[in-house]
Amino acid sequence: MDVRSFKSAEEIAVAAADIFCDVLQKKPNAVLGLATGSSPIPGYTELARRAAAGLVDFSAARTFNLDEYCGLSLKNNRSYRYFMQHELFDKVGIRNENVHFLDGLAEDFDAECARYEAELAAFGGADLQLLGIGRNGHIGFNEPAKKMHAGCFRVDLTDDTIQANQRFFDCKGDVPRCALTMGIGTILTAKKILLIAAGEDKAAAVYGMLRGEISGQCPASFLRTHGNVLILLDESAARLL
Fold first, then answer.
1. Can you give the pLDDT at residue 170?
2. Which residue, 118, 169, 212, 213, has most beta carbons within 10 Å?
3. What is this structure's pTM?
4. How far apart are CA 134 and CA 161, in angstroms?
């Protein structure tokens, strides 16, 4: 693992954007695994700035997002599909036909997860997978558990995750209780993994990921079994290391 510390989330954003630009320069039709939440937003903003300046070209890139809430349509402004459209896709010129997403309104969630898994595998997996980390060590919506899932699956969200995501909704009761997500095994098929974390509230999870036992109690710890992982932290998230 390559672990780097920065003074601010803005510095992390520049470093993360550099990684994306390098991947796309070498392979314009790269498969990008993307994440939602607060952590990626500064990086997406920096990528949008570079795209507007003609410094990076997303026109041939393909994208697969980590997860989606169950029960929300893509037009719902709290869905991850909506988030990605407005935070990144519309700003960098990613073509709709190159966007791949789990369907939170699917009638058969198992079939939907199998479809998504096969679709990603057909492209050879992600060339670059972006991750954040939850306060309980989750990546995607892989919550702490005795056994980690290999492929995409439906997950019941923990109360800690629901509480953390409440800030994106009008109230806690509006937060969906389940989601569809890539499993740990799917994430680990990526050729390169980039994880970003900022803020003191992520420090314990970062410590568990890098220094704790590799176990389902800290799903992010399984990243230590991958041969090409870059971790970008601000000083607050790295304070326990």
1. 79
2. 212
3. 0.94
4. 7
